[in-house]
Amino acid sequence: MESKELTIVIVTFKSDEKIINCLKSISKNTPVIVVENSDNKDFKIKVENIFTNVNCILVGENKGYAIANNIGLKSVKTKYALVLNPDTILDKDAIENFFTTKEQVKDFWLIGPANNQIVHFNENDSNLKEVNNLKGFAIFLNLSKFNRDYFDENFFLFFEEIDLCRRVKKNKGKIYLDKQIFIKHDGASSVNKINKLDLEKTRNWHWMWSTFYYQKKYKGFLLAFIIIFPKLFSAIFKTLFYFIIINNKKREIYFCRLSGLLNSIIGKKAWYRPSID
What we know:
By secondary structure, the protein is an alpha/beta fold. The chain contains nine helices and ten strands.
């Protein structure tokens, strides 16, 4: 059943060290689409040679999480798709439990594993809980509900799954967490060739860009600006402060926060890209 109804989509970017363990945890009977945000032909050859169930799509450049996931999802031919991060490992019963759950709630739009989520289960809770949001490291999609309208491609990094869940709920769609489904997630460790400072700068830039864009999308420019103003003031103050005391590392990080926010405020696309060793 799995191989006929499910395709797994994994977006990678210089994730050579993590993706192998992830792919090892997936049944060889389940088709996998790996979308690599580069033109790394050696990576494509490597994963397709080791794993016969994998089709690796090279995007050609780093287009970000949303665009790459949409490329993968639009290539899926099955009824369902499971979007995974490359730093995840599937429990041996995870896929089977997804299929058990989707039979229980046939009107579902999204299902996620209960572990590592913001919502916690109490002892008396059933295995399933309907929620408004879930984290993006593992999302099981009922593709027929989406009409090929998945992630907002304006997001490069952060808020993609929050936005997706919000649109699902706006359309009266059902989102579930299942505590019987377990998928290990290392978190913030998908990329292995970016130094720590560049990684922090990238995260800070895109976190601020996406924060304002998300608020503006649903609340309008003025209210979004009011909400974000304390973060704008803080970024300006700390950039100047760390410049004065000559802490270059902190100054660069807070300048990236300021830059990401200002670029989003003026309506510029999310252009910042990490440096690669």
